């Protein structure tokens, strides 16, 4: 039996889901509320580009930033601002995530993205750029050589590009100047926030924690589990409970990415009894014209003789298949594979099964 490549790949990618669900650590499915990253943003200049920066005549903000920077360094260019014409500088937006409990002096990674019409940031250096939080305060300062990891080359008749040369990163490129105030000591309660909200999973987490002894956990809602410390050391208590294992529950859902033909199915997907037949009429016309010419001593002229071959494939060998009620994900994939359907046909089949009321799962098409 011939199995389409994408369906075979689907089976390989989903083989963990075909087995029984395995317990996972609480730290892998829930976060401690308040212990999170904070987003930072800043505006800066990248210099030292090999003629691939912004055009100062069109990128007004880049020219104004360059003039302002030079004035702060004691160079007056106001009188000759209109004559500035360099392509070695680019205006960029700098973003970073400030980790929880990051202290002044620690370093974080930053991302640099071109703001003007620069074509390539490779080889540039980001000048000192303050990174602001949502409150407008400066929490870090970024500077350093940027690395795009991209390749771009252009000639008279061809060009090649790999990656995005106008987006770069600086590893450990920012120094934290201010910490976000947050402390665990002295708290009476701690909240665990589930990354995938679910009633059953929240109750299982609370039961696993209470199983250690003491009624200290309570599921408040599908996303939150409230922990009562009762004088316990927060660090020691969190370290102990985050290693506990629970089996997360999941909603029966089928995700279809129509643009790429990607299909992902959850373990709980079930199909009621349904019959499926799939087939298309394909007509293939092949033109192979031949040249006919007379002998060297003969009379006549050279002509082109058409040769047309027509093939009709009605896919009559494909039969109707019956999927029994309550089949599992593994049986569903096997049954569809047996029909020899391709990825696009599989999407149509799943949508039709859902329309018939036989797909006992949520179908999400993106």
From TrEMBL:
Q: Where in the cell is it found?
A: Bacterial flagellum basal body
Query: What UniProt keywords apply to this chain's record, in alphabetical order?
Result: Bacterial flagellum, Cell projection, Cilium, Flagellum, Periplasm, Signal
Please state the span of the N-terminal signal peptide per the UniProt entry: 1-21
Q: InterPro entries from the xrefs?
A: Flag_FlgI
- Coiled-coil residues are none
Q: What does this protein do?
A: Assembles around the rod to form the L-ring and probably protects the motor/basal body from shearing forces during rotation.
Tell me which family the UniProt entry assigns to this protein.
Belongs to the FlgI family.
Q: What is its quaternary makeup?
A: The basal body constitutes a major portion of the flagellar organelle and consists of four rings (L,P,S, and M) mounted on a central rod.
Instruction: State the protein's name.
Output: Flagellar P-ring protein
């Amino acid at each position: 039996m011939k199995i389409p490549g994408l369906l075979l790949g689907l089976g390989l990618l989903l083989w963990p889901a075909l087995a029984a669900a395995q317990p996972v650590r609480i730290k892998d499915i829930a976060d401690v509320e308040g212990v999170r990253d904070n987003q930072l943003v800043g505006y800066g200049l990248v210099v030292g580009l090999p003629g691939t920066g912004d055009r100062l005549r069109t990128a007004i903000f880049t020219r104004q930033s360059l003039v302002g920077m030079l004035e702060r360094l004691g160079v007056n260019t106001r009188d000759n601002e209109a004559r500035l014409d360099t392509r070695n500088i680019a205006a960029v937006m700098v973003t970073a995530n400030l980790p929880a409990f990051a202290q002044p002096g620690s370093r974080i990674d930053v991302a640099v993205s071109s703001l003007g019409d620069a074509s390539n940031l490779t080889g540039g250096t980001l000048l000192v750029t303050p990174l602001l939080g949502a409150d407008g305060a400066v929490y870090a300062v970024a500077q350093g050589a940027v690395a795009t990891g991209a390749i771009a080359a252009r000639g008279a008749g061809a060009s090649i590009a790999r990656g995005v040369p106008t987006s770069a990163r600086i590893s450990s490129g920012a120094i934290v100047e201010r910490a976000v105030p947050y402390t665990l000591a002295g708290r009476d309660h701690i909240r665990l926030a589930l990354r995938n909200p679910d009633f059953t999973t929240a109750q299982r987490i609370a039961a696993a924690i209470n199983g250690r002894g003491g009624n200290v956990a309570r599921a408040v809602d599908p996303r939150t589990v409230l922990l009562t410390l009762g004088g316990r050391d927060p660090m020691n208590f969190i370290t102990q409970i985050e290693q506990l294992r629970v089996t997360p529950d999941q909603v029966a859902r089928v995700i279809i990415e129509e643009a790429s033909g990607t299909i992902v199915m959850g373990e709980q997907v079930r199909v009621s009894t349904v019959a499926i037949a799939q087939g298309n009429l394909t007509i293939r016309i092949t033109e192979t014209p031949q040249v006919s010419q007379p002998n060297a001593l003969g009379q006549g002229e050279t002509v082109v003789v058409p040769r047309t071959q027509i093939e009709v494939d009605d896919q009559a060998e494909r039969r109707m298949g019956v999927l029994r009620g309550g089949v599992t994900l593994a049986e569903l994939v096997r049954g569809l594979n047996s029909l020899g359907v391709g990825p696009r046909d599989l999407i149509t089949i799943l949508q039709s099964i859902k329309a018939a009321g036989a797909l006992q799962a949520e179908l999400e098409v993106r």
